[in-house]
Amino acid sequence: MGEEKSAWSNYWRGRTAGASGEVFGEVGVERSEELAEFWSSYFAGVHSGRILDLACGAGSALKHVPAGHGGVLVGADISADAIEQALSNVSPMVGVVSSADALPFADGSFDFIVSQFGFEYADAKRAAAEVARVLAPGGVFTSVSHMADGAIAAECRRHLDTIESIEGSGFVEASKTLFSAVSDRESGRGHIDQVAMDEALSAFKVANAAMLALRTDNPLAAHLHSGASQLYDRRANYALADIHGWLDAMAAEIAAYRLRMQGMINAALTREKAEQIIAIISPGGAGSVEPFELRGEAAAYVLRGPA
User: Fold this and answer.
1) Which parts of the chain register pLDDT below 50?
2) pLDDT reported for residue 70
3) Does residue 144 contact residue 289 with C-beta atoms inside 8 Å?
4) What is the predicted pLDDT for the residue at 218?
5) Cα–Cα distance between 125 and 168 in angstroms, integer?
6) Over the range 205-243, which residues count as b (16 or more CB within 10 Å of their CB) and which as e?
7) Do the Cβ atoms of 74 and 93 come closer than 8 Å?
8) Taking CA 248 as the corner, what is the angle to CA 59 and CA 229, rounded to the nearest 5 degrees?
9) Which pLDDT value is given to residue 24?
10) Pairwise CA distance, residues 264 & 216, whole Å
11) Three-state SS for 186?
12) What is the pLDDT of residue 263?
């Protein structure tokens, strides 16, 4: 659990989350206005009650609750950094750091439980059992969840391929080695190892060529490459430790983004699993699973389950 929390916190502190405050990172299909319209329409008919946003992320569902709502809004997420962002996006809201499959709430605590690309990241069946437990009699669960082999999953696979190419290029380590060699040479410290310098330069040229090819179509690759280039041009203004620190921080953000993409793929539900989840929440068979389109493509499932 501790490792999972750390990984998600690293993601939320990363550039892809911090720039927009959204859970979506760089997955464009998830940014569709259809999601905003879905939740705005949903909450338009909810004027009171206790609402839980399960695995709330940055509050992408709850932020569509209209002003003046008379009830209680609660966001629960495994990442404290996500909760911090959600609190800045949704007011008033109570934030709780918790996994979706082990909720710290009493039985029957909520009239409405919602989730947008969230609860399925936990153990989805255990999370469903928790939903059934904390949902009040007559309460309603509604989620928009990842669809296996849907448009979002396909886009995630494309991004994951690019991320793996960035990491596989060895650009960060090659840059650090070159910066160190150049720093030694320019400072005049000790003997200059020309063989080591030539090896560092040769390795960097290979990695740099790979990054030049990647940066054309990938903002993250472009950000890494441009930043490293600017640091090299202005290296006299920076300590070597600070340059290495920036490169290490970028490597951590890229790793966090890889986690996000792989996590989205792993979390995606087949229809069979989605129906199993709803059967746990609505054992009487009153629930439903329906496909949800984004930009004209099947991308998610809408799960609805009365208690």
Assistant:
1) 1-2, 14-25
2) 82
3) no
4) 82
5) 35
6) eebbebbeebbeebebbeebbeebeebeeeeeebeeeeb
7) yes
8) 105
9) 34
10) 25
11) helix
12) 86
The SS3 assignment for 239 reads coil
Determine the pLDDT at residue 21: 33
Alpha carbon distance 131, 145 (integer Å):
15
Q: What is the distance between the alpha carbons of residues 274 and 128, in angstroms, rounded to a whole number?
A: 10
Cα 89 to Cα 38, 65, 103, distances in angstroms: 18, 11, 22
3-state secondary structure 73-91: EEEEECCHHHHHHHHHHCC
Give which of 140, 160, 173, 121 is closest to 257, Cα–Cα: 160
| Distance from the first to the final alpha carbon of the chain | 29
Contacts of 268 (CB under 8 A, 6+ apart): 120, 146, 147, 148, 149, 150, 152, 153
Read off the pTM.
0.78
Q: Which pLDDT value is given to residue 68?
A: 83
